[in-house]
Design brief:
This protein is an alpha+beta fold. The chain contains 4 helices and 5 strands, in the order H-H-H-H-E-E-E-E-E. A 5-stranded mixed β-barrel has the order 1-2-3-5-4. It is rod-shaped. The chain starts with a helix and ends in a 6-residue tail after the last strand.
Length: 157
């Protein structure tokens, strides 16, 4: 019977395709995993979803429409769901590390400090004392892209 054959062949195709894509996530090389992380997995899950919908459908759409549905679901999941699942790197400034001022930091204003090889914007925690250029300072914390520093003379006896 051609009805049973077409009714069952498309969902089985999408089921097999989805399983292959989900398993492909396990076998990707480490270099590709960071950039393309979860793309085959989400595409596989979307093809499994298309297979489930075709199993439940009373009328099977043409194959080109099935591909269109799968591509739309895959694209939407990669664009919207994948960024929520991927871990983002958090850069943490270690507590009380040393830096060197590049420009003068006036009271209540920001200046520039050299910290771990990069020049950062910084302001002094004590808003009343100025810090001259080319002085050693301690980094207390980071607020956005600005470091909060104190001069080293506060810690000297």
């Amino acid at each position: 019977m051609p009805l049973i054959d077409s009714q069952l062949s498309f969902p089985l195709f999408w089921l097999g395709f989805g399983l292959v894509l989900c398993l492909l996530e396990l076998f990707l090389p480490k270099t590709l995993v960071t950039y393309y992380r979860f793309v085959p997995l989400f595409s596989g899950i979307c093809s499994l979803l298309v297979a489930f919908l075709l199993f439940r459908a009373t009328r099977v759409p043409e194959f080109k429409y099935q591909i269109f549905y799968w591509m739309g679901l895959s694209l939407a999941s990669v664009i919207w769901i994948r960024p929520m699942i991927r871990k983002r790197k958090k850069y943490v400034v270690r507590e009380a590390t040393e830096a060197k001022t590049v420009t003068e930091i006036l009271p209540g204003e920001t200046g520039r400090v050299l910290y771990e090889g990069c020049v950062w914007q910084a302001y002094c925690e004590d808003r009343t004392c100025p810090i001259a250029s080319n002085q050693k300072v301690f980094v207390l914390r980071r607020e956005g892209n600005t470091l909060v520093v104190v001069p080293d003379r506060l810690f000297l006896p």
